[in-house]
């Protein structure tokens, strides 16, 4: 999506992302880092996701990206995470 931005002399188009699509997932000791196709990185605490928190590093590496990048899935752990929810900051205790 683009929007018109008025500058001093004329209107210019500004790029406004309308979707966030996952490209890859990495973990460190405390955080999950989801790289998006547009270059952004979302980092959230692993504690938000008890199944991932309790998983081994080997189990965490066995993920799938679904829907062209809109979701993350760990088949061995039966864990599914929506990229939209990560963008919104939704955690497992918020509901």
Short description:
With 95 residues, this protein is of the alpha+beta class.
Give the secondary structure arrangement, pairings included:
Blueprint: E1 2-6, E2 11-15, E3 22-27, E4 31-36, E5 41-45, H1 50-54, H2 57-60, E6 64-66, E7 71-74, E8 79-82, H3 83-88
Antiparallel strand pairs: 1-2, 3-4, 4-5, 6-7, 7-8
Structure description:
With 95 residues, this protein is α+β, with helices and mostly antiparallel strands. It has a single domain (20-88), classed as NE0471 N-terminal domain-like, CATH 3.30.2020.40. It contains three helices and eight strands, in the order E-E-E-E-E-H-H-E-E-E-H. It has helices at 50-54, 57-60, 83-88, and strands spanning 2-6, 11-15, 22-27, 31-36, 41-45, 64-66, 71-74, 79-82. Strands 3-4-5 form a three-stranded antiparallel β-sheet. The protein has a three-stranded antiparallel β-sheet with strand order 6-7-8. The protein has a two-stranded antiparallel sheet with strand order 1-2. Strand 4 (31-36) and strand 5 form a beta hairpin. The longest helix is centred in the C-terminal third of the chain and has 6 residues, at 83-88. The radius of gyration is 17 Å and the shape is elongated. The mean pLDDT is 84.
Overall residue-averaged pLDDT value: 84
Q: Biggest sheet, strands in spatial order?
A: 3-4-5
Structural category is alpha+beta
Main sheet properties: 3 strands, antiparallel
The run of helices and strands is EEEEEHHEEEH
- CATH class call: Alpha Beta
Q: How much helicity do the residues have?
A: 10-25%
Shape: elongated
């Amino acid at each position: 999506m683009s929007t018109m931005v008025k500058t001093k002399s004329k209107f210019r188009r500004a790029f406004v992302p309308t979707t966030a699509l996952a490209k890859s997932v990495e973990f460190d000791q405390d955080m999950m880092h989801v790289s998006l196709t547009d270059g952004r990185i979302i980092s959230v605490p692993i504690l938000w996701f008890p199944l991932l928190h309790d998983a081994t590093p080997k189990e965490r590496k066995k993920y799938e990206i679904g829907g062209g990048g809109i979701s993350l899935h760990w088949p061995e752990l039966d864990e599914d995470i929506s990229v939209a929810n990560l963008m919104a900051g939704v955690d497992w205790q918020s509901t």
